[in-house]
Amino acid sequence: MTDQSRGGRIRATGTRRKKPGTRRRATTAAAWSAAALVLVGGSGLGYAYIKLNGNIQGVDINARLGTDRPVDVDNGSMDILVLGSDSRSGDNAEYGTDQGGARSDTAMIMHVNEGHRTASVVSVPRDTIVERPDCQDDKGATAAGEQRAMFNTAYEVGGPACAVKTVETMSGIRMDHYIEVDFTGFKQLIDDLGGVKITTNEAIDDSKSQLKLAPGTHTLDGEQALALVRTRTSVGDGSDLGRIQLQQAFIKALITQVKDIGLLSSPKKLYDVADSATRAITPDSELDSVRELVGFAGGLKSLGAKDVNMITLPVEYDPADPNRVVPLEKESEQVWTALRADKPVPASATEESAGDKGDASGVVAGG
Fold first, then answer.
1. Of residues 341, 344, 343, 345, the one with CA closest to residue 73
2. Secondary structure (3-state) at 184
């Protein structure tokens, strides 16, 4: 099942700051993968409890943030920051070496509406210029704020808590949960799922991601999926804004794939996916056990690709630096106001945004 969106480069199909490079772009895929698994993966996390529970390492966000936060609105909706960092330690070293503190590569603010039958996802480009607040870093020291900072430096100077505080400052929305993703785990997840099926309407030949696909239908394995979501130079204007749109098409294909393969009918596949999922994510301390993750994800399992509206934060290129973007003030406030009121994001919020214009990448996503 497919739906048309901005042009027609890719269709998803199914059965119903370091130096920019490979690591940074690939981590983006992990964040999208986690989002899909959070949306549809409730049952998979309950298998082999003890083994899977040992995979999960949580971080205590609330203790570092204290009480100076937006009001916690208890109306049944839920807000989650899904973050991918560009650390190159451990298994990720094959994609480059560390040259300092990690930065957040990808950020998605997921708002799940009351009733948990629809959701809005707002992608924040990593090079968005924002006001970064003072933060307490992982050692308890204060990291000074900055009036004009790139969004992804929040994680670098203050870790997960600073990333959450920066999002809460810019949106006025309290994050209920935080999930950080490792992209090496994403690669294994895709392989465990048996790949993700997409259809390309045009050839893709990207020398940087090393992805070559002829027009037609393809089932991508983990490495190919990473290459797809890393692809930038061959879509749109070659910027991250076009790449985000490509990723949004992929995540809808991934959601469809997970819902269609019937994990419960294959105990081994169910375990493999659950094992990879719990290794791939670092959640906040309120989700750092299988029991808590099962309850969290189980409440979201009714969401399908067609129920998730994905946009990019309304932005324009920074007049002072064309390699950066700045939020469109009025339009961004439309987004935050809608989410705070548990309403759909109005179409007018993205009409003038450089991030959601039709010439960025042209994708069609399945639902």
1. 341
2. helix
